[in-house]
Amino acid sequence: MIDLTSLVEDFPAPDTKVKALANDIIPGGSALNAAVTFAHLGGEAHLASAFGGDGSFRALLFDDLRRHGVMPIDICGDPDYRIPISTVVSTRSSGDRMIINAAGEECARLRALPGLFDGGYDLIQLDQYEHPFVARHAEAIRAFKGPVILDGGGWKDWSPDYLRLADIPIVSEEFFAGGPDAFATECAALGIERWAMTRGARGVIWQDHGQRGEIPAAPVQAVDTLGAGDIFHGAFCQAFTEKGEFVAALEHANQVAGRSCEKSGTRSWMHG
């Protein structure tokens, strides 16, 4: 999607105006942000998503991905599909954010992409979007030889479908009612032996083949938390692909995501 972002000191009260400290138009979305992070940290990332018909936003997305070393794969065969636009307001005083998600449906008219998952990839990450595409390719994803990572934000009607495809779900605490113990029970029922739950300033809980531990949140002065979860996932996937060490990859991701919160937007942290 395209994120229209504004950084303000504090959220405005109703019927008032505030001056933005910064504005930007940034390609976004959880999978895109993770792919850009993965590539920035040294990995080779391919992003399969719906990019919409020809136009300025499509050109902006493709230019951004190429500059960051991400290979786009357009899954959408509908020339009338339009890239969704999201409005994001973040506060410098607290690092909190408000997001107005785009209206509209996901692309259901899909391109034929035979052998897409036979491309020699080491790892697949799924977010919970592009549901028609994931449903069509569920068997290929299930047959994939490498690990399948799930980025689980909030719970959705189709979340069980994604969870059943995952080898390693890394979810937010909003994803599963009942907290980590209930989620551990659900994972055990599905035969999932590795998972993690991110809890913002309270750090990360992880489980690995019956062992459980916690990683404290990185000590940072948060300016903007936009995309921090996406960046966490991209950093985890890159470190896990490179070393294969689950907890070490989580610790690395925790540090990278924390560092990203010290700057505005989803790209500033990459530049010092």
The CATH superfamily is Ribokinase
Mean pLDDT: 93
Please state how the strands of the largest beta sheet are arranged side by side.
Answer: 7-8-9-10-11-12
Shape: globular
**Strand fraction band?**
15-25%
Largest sheet: 6 strands, mixed
Structural class: alpha/beta
- In total, the number of domains comes to 1
CATH class, anyone? Answer: Alpha Beta
Separation of the first and last Cα atoms: 25 Å
- Total E-strand runs: 12
Please count the helical segments: 8
**CATH-derived topology:** UDP-N-acetylmuramoyl-L-alanine:D-glutamate ligase
Residue share in helices?
25-40%
SSE ordering: EEHEHEEEEHHEHEHEEEHH
Uncertain stretches of 5 or more adjacent residues: none
Rg, Å, rounded: 18 Å
CATH architecture: 3-Layer(aba) Sandwich
